[in-house]
Protein 1
Amino acid sequence: MKTSQIFRLLPAALLLGVAAAQNGADDCANATPIAGLGVYNFDNTGFSIDGPADCSGQPVRRDMWYLWTCTASDGYSVSTCNGTTLDTRIVIYDGFDCSGFPQITCAASTCGGQTEVAFNAISGSQYLIRLGSRAAGASGFGTFEIGQDFCVTAPNDQFDPNGDCSIPTAMVDGSWSALFVSKDEPDYYTFELAAGATLQMDLTFSHAAGDVDVFVYDDANCTNVVAEALSGDNNETLTYTNIGTCDMLLKVRTEIWTGSGSPCNSYDLSISGTGGAGNPCGGGGGGVTYVCDPANVNTTGTDAKALVTGSFLSTDAYPAHIDVNDGPPGQFGYFLGSATAVDPGINVSAGQLCVGAPQVRYGANTATGEGNPDYKSVSVFDAGGALQNLSGTSTTGMGFDIPNFIPTPISQQIAPGATWVFQLWYRDAGGVSNFSTAASVTFN
C-alpha cells in the first residue's frame, strides 16, 4: 500500500510532530475536543456503541467520539489509511448534535480495511467525528489523520481540460505522473492503434484516495466499450489488441469508481502500443479517397464535389456525413451507393457513373429506399450550389448522414474494414443527368 495522497500533500509544518495522545470519548455527549490539522492516536478497546446505525444501515462499532473545530474554510479528509490494521468505519456529523445526528458523510474500508472520508468545512464550525470498528467485536489501536482534502487542493493536471468525450487529449506512447481525476470530472484520451497492435495502459495510484477504473471505446461518442479495467486493488492494467485489418481510433475514459469513499485521486499513467501504420479506417478524413475526380462539369461551369466527414466507425448509427458543393442551384439529386468503384466512370447522359453494380439508391419511397426515412437523401442545391437536406436526416442541415446499414438490394450492416462508395446523381439544368465526384469510404 502506497502512502496516502492526503498525507503526502500536507505541509510538514501543519503536521504534529508526535501523534496527539488524547483518545476519543466513549459517548457523543463527552466528545473529545480537537482542532485543525494533525495526526491523532486512537484505541477503541473496551468501547461500546453510542450512535445510530446510519452508515449505509450499519453502526460504527466500539465507536469513539471527537468534536473537531475547523480553523479555515476548506475541504478536509479524515483517514485511518496506513494508520492501523483495524478495519474501520468513520462518520462525520454537522455540529455538536448528539440527538439528530445530521450526517455529512460516512464510509468503511475505502483503503483496504481502513477508511477515508472527505467533506467541506466552515471556519469556526464544529463537526463530530465518529470513528470505530467495521466488524462486530473487533477493536484495535492506531492513528487517524485530519488533513486538507486532496480533491480540493490538487491543481489541474497538464492535460486539462479533457473531462468530456468531445475534448480528449491525443496521446502517444510514454509515461506521465501526477494526473488528477475526480468523480465530477473524468479524464478522456484518444490515440490510434494499428492493425494487430496491442495497447497496454498501466495506471498506478493510491487506493486510499479513490479507486480509478478505465474504459476503452471504439466510437466517437464513447458509448461502445471494447475493453475495461475495473479491479479493486491499488493499480489498473489494461490491454487491448486490434484484431481488425486497419488502424483504429480509440478513446479512453479514466474515472473514479462511484462507490469509492473519496471523490478523487491522482495517478501515474504509462501507455505503449499506440501509433498507426498508414492504414486508417476512420477519423480525420484518413478513411476517404475520391474517385472520378474531377467529375464532368455542370451548367455552372464547375464539377460537383463530394466531401465526406465523420467517425467512420461501423458501430455508430451514422458513421459518415457527405456534403456536395458546386452544384447547379435549384436542381435536385440523391445518393447512390455500392461496394465497388468504377474509375474512370461510365458515361451516362452528361456525367460519369462511378459506382459499380449492384447499386443502392438513397431515394424517396423507392424499393431500394425501403420506405425508411434514414435512406432518403433526395435534396436540392441552394443558391450557392450546396446540397441542402430536405428529409431531416442530416444533423447539420446540409448533405446526408449515411446510416450504418446498406439498404436493398445489398441489405447488410457496414462491417469494420469494409469499403463503400457513394456518389450523388443530380438533375442538371435542361433536364440532363449528371454526377458528383465519388467518395470511397473505408469504415473501422
Protein 2
Amino acid sequence: MKTLQVALGERSYPIYIGEGLLAQAALLAQHIQGPSVCIVTNTTVSPLYLEQVMAALSFDFECASVVLPDGEQYKNLDVLNQVFDQLLTSRFSREVTLIALGGGVVGDMAGFAAACYQRGVPFIQMPTTLLSQVDSSVGGKTAVNHALGKNMIGAFYQPQCVIADTDTLKTLDDRQLSSGLAEVIKYGLINDLNFFEWLEQNIVGLVAREPALLAEAIARSCQDKADIVAEDEREHGARALLNLGHTFGHAIETGMGYGEILHGEAIAIGMVMAADLSRREGWLTEVDVTRIKALLIAAGLPVETPAGMTAAGFMELMSVDKKVQAGVIRLVLLKAVGQAIMSDDYEPAKLAETLAHFEH
C-alpha cells in the first residue's frame, strides 16, 4: 500500500492506494468518528462490493446503505434526496459517517450529501473507477448537475480519507478505463512533462491493465492533484489548471445529455479543442497537437466532437460555466506540452475558429 497526504492543515487527510483495501476493516474504521455509517453506492457497484464493505464494518458500527441508479443523468437533486431519505429514516445523527463507494458520480453525490446533512457530517471516499481514483475523489469538490449546467450546485467539502483499492479496476469495463485515462493524461499536460512522456511510453501497458503501471499512474496523478489542492483548495489560482479541457468537455456533456458520453471522453475531446486553440494562439505546434491526439487515441479515447455540437451551441453552454468572470469565458490553455495557463486574453476570433473547426 502507498500512502499520500493532502496537506490542508487541520483538514489534511491521507490517500491510500493498493490492492485488497476494501476488506481492511481496521484501515477504514480508524477514520470513522461515530457509531454509525451510511454507505452510498449504485446499482453497478452494489452487487460487486457493498456486501464486502458492510461485512467489514457491521461488527463495530450501525450500518445502512443507499443504492442509487448508475449514470451521470442521475446526478441531480431529485436522486440526491434518496440519500437524505435513508439518513433520516435511519434516524442518524451528526455522528454518522457517509461512505462513497463507487465512481465519480457516487463520490460527488455522497460528498455533497455529507456537506449538507445536519450542516455537515464526515465522509470517506472509496473510489472504484480509475477516473474517481485519480481525480474526483481527491480535493473535496462535491456537486450535482442542473439541466442548464454541469456541477453548478455543490460545495467544497473534504473527506476524512480516500481509499483507492486497485483491485476494483479488474471489474471496470474498457470504456470506463479509457475514461479514467483521460484525467491521467491531463496531469501530464498541465504541469508534468516527465509524466506525459512516461504515459507515451507505457500507454499500451496501461490499456492492458498491467497492475504495476496502473498503480504508478494512480499514485503520480494523485500526488500531482494533492500538491495543487494543498496550494489552492478553493480554486482561486493554480487549481483552476486542473480544468484543462473541462469547459469544452462540460459543454459536450450538457449538450449531448448527461450520460450519453462519459466524462473522460468529453474531457479528452475538450483537451484536443484546448490544444487546437493553443496552436492558433501560436503556443503549440501542429506536431504538439498531433502528439496529444495520438496519446488520447492510444488510450481508447475520442478526439472529435459528437454529431449535433454546433459552434453556437458550444458558446451558449460555455457561457454558463463556473469559470466565466465578468462575462468572459476563462479557458485553460497550453503554452507547451506540460505547461498549462488560465487565460482570458485569447483572441475571440481564434476561439470561434476552433469551435467552427470542431462543429458537427
Protein 3
Amino acid sequence: MIREGKFGYHEAISLLVITISIRMALTSPSMVAQLVGTTGWYMTIISALVAAFFFSFTVRLLRRFPHQSFMEIYDEVLGKVVGSLFTLLLTGYLMFMASINLREFTEVMKVFVLPESPPSFIMIVFLICVVVLTLQGLETMARFAKFMVYILGAGFVLVLILSISNYQISNLFPILGYGLDTTMLHGFLRSSYYGEVVLVGVMASSLHGPKEIKRIGNRTLLISGITTSLSLLAFTLVFPYTIAPELVSPMYTMASQINLGEFLQRLDPIFVFLWNFGSFIEVTLLFYCGILTYAHVFNITDKRPLIFPKAVILFCLAIIPDGLSQVEMELVQFTRNWGWVFYFIPPIIVLAVAAIRNKKGGTRGA
C-alpha cells in the first residue's frame, strides 16, 4: 500500500518549483516568442501575479476546511455525486497534462538526442521510472525533489552565466514586443503555466495546515516566476525574436552554443541529463495526483493496483498526437491558454458554495 506520508515546507516547494519551471527546458519559450515577441520575460511576471490572485481563493478554501484535501472538501460542500464529478474533472486534466508533458519531452529527446528511436521506446523507458517512483509514495518523491532542486538550480544558473558572451542587449527591442495589450492578454491566459501550485490542495493531508500551504504556494510562485522570467530574458538576449520561434528547445540551444575556449564547449549533454530528471519529477507528480484523486472518488485505499493500468492509459494518451508540431502548436498551447479553468475555477466555485451554504470544516490548525 502506498503511503503519502508527511513532508515539510522545503520538500513541497522543491517538488512544485521543479514541476512548473522545468518547462523552460522544452518548447514553451519558443511559443512565448511567437506570441509576444520580446516581452516574454515580463509577460510571465504578469502570469505569476494572476496565478497568485487565483491561488488566494484556494488558500481561503483550505483555511475554511483545515487539514482536508480538495477531494474531501468537494464531497463535503457539494455532496458525494457532484463532488466526485469535480474531482474526476481534475483527475482527467492531470492525466491529460501528464500525457502532453511526456510526449513533449519525448519529441525534444528525439530531435536532440535519440533521433532514430521510436517515440514509444522513449516513453516506455520513461514510464518505467515514473512507475517505480510512484510506488515509493509522495513523501519519497518530495524528498527526491528536494535533493534534485539544488543540482537543477546550479545547472540553470551555470547556463545563464556561461551564456553571457552571447547576450545582445539590442535583442530586447522593441521593448513592448507586439504591443502591451497583447502581452497583458497572454499574461493573463498563461497564468495556467503556474497552475500546478494548486496541487497543494491535493497533497494537503501530507502538509502541515493552511498557514504552511499558503507559504508553500506563495514561495513556489515567487521562485518559479523569477526562474521563468530570467530564463525568458536570457533567451531573448541570445536569440532575436524573429528566429526564436523556430527553435525547438532554446535552453538546449543556448547550452550548445557555450564556447569558452578549447576546453569548455558543447556542454549541452550534461544539462540534458539534468533536465531529464526535472521532466521525470514533473510527469510523476501529475501522474501520482491523478491516481490520488481517482482513488478517492472510488474509495480505493490501496493504490498500487491502479499504477500499472494508469501508466498504460498515460502511454496511450501520449502516443495519440501526430508529432512535435501538433504537441507544441495545439496541445501545449491549449493547456497554457485554458488550464486556469481546470486549476483555478473549481476551488473558487466550491468556496462560493461553501460561503452561501455556510459550510465550514474544523478549526484545527486554521
Protein 4
Amino acid sequence: MQDLSIYIHIPFCVRKCLYCDFLSDKPSGNGMSEYAFALINEIKQAGVYAENYNVGTVFIGGGTPSIYGHGVISDIINTLRETFENVRKGSYAPSEVTIECNPGTVDTDKLAEYKKCGVNRISLGLQSANYEELKMLGRIHRYEDWVNSVAAARKAGFDNINVDLISGLPRQSRESFSDTLRRVLEHETEHISVYSLIVEKNTPFYDMYNPDNMTDEQYDEWEREDRAIYDMTYDTLLSGGYNRYEISNYAKPGFECRHNLVYWDRGDYLGFGLGSSSMIDDIRFKNCISLKKYIDYYTQPDADAFKNLTVSPLSDKFYTNPLYEEVQKLTREEQMLEHIMLGLRKTAGIDINEFNERYETDFLKKYDRQVKKWTDAGMLVIKRGKVCCTHRGLNVSNGIIVDFI
C-alpha cells in the first residue's frame, strides 16, 4: 500500500492580506457553512483511493482554516478518518496533521479541539514582529496576538509549532528583521519558515510597491538589503539551534515538515477543496476555482453528485470527476526535471541512486555538463551519493535549476 498525503483548502479569511494572491477571500452569506458541507461530501468520495493508499500526512491550509467556529474542523478531520478507515479497515494514524492558524482567530478551546481530533502540528502566520510592517502587509494582528496564540497552543499540548515570516519588505532593514528573529527565537518554536516577499501582480501590494516603478538605484538597494537579510537569517537561525533543510525552511532536529517533504520528494498527494492541487501516479490535476460551481456540485444528493466519478484510462488508480481541471500525465522527462527542480531546493539534495532507479537513467552521465559547471563553480557538491547545492549554491539555486531545465 502506497503512502498518500492529503491537503485540505479553506479559502476564507477575516481580511485578505494586501500581498496575497492565494485563492482566498472574505466569506459572504452562508458561504462558509455551505463550503464545509461540500468539502465533507468531497472527502467522502475519496474512499475510492483508500484501497490503494495509506494516509501519511494531512495539511489543512488556506486562507485561514481557524476562521471556522468550534466543531467544523473536527467534523472535517473525523470525516477523513471515517472515510479511509471504513474502506481499508485499518487504523487512521497519519504521522503529522497540520493546521494553519492566524493569530487572533484561535483561542484555548479551539486549540484543545484541534488537539483532541488528531491535529499535532500548528502553523502560525506571524510574518513580522514589527507593527508598522504588519500594517504594511495588511495583517489583522499584532505581535502580541501571536505570542498569546503560541502560549495557548502550548497550553493545549502542542509540541510542534511553526511560525511563518516574510523578509524583503519594502523599506525593511536588517535591524528590523533581526529584531523579529530575536523575538521569535525567544519562544522556541520547533519550525520556522522564512519566505522572501514576491510582489505579485493583481494584488493591492503590487499597486503600491510595483518594482517596475522603482529607479535602478532603488531596486538595487532593495535587492542588496534582501540578500543581506537572507544571509543574516541563515546565520541567526543556525546559531539558534535550527537546521535549514530547504531554501526557506528551518527546523529543530526531527521537526522538519513531513508533509512538505512529500511535495519536494514527489510523493503522491490528494487535494480537497477549492483550487486544491493533486498528484497521483505522476498525474497532476486540480479542483475548479469557482466557489459556486464547487458548492453546487458537492451539495447535490450523493447519488447524483458522485455518479460521474470514473476510473481514468491514464491510471487504474486515478479517479476523475467533472470538477478536475488541468489534468496532465507527466512525461518521463518532465518527471526528471521536476525531481531536479524540487530536489535542489532541499539541503539534502538529490539521491543519485534513487534518481537512476526511478527513471532508469544515469544522472551523472545525462547531466554531466551541468554538474561539472556548477561543481567547478563551488555551487554544487557530490557527497555520500547525493548531489546538492552548497550554501553559496542555495543562494543562486534558481539559476542552477534553470540550467538543468
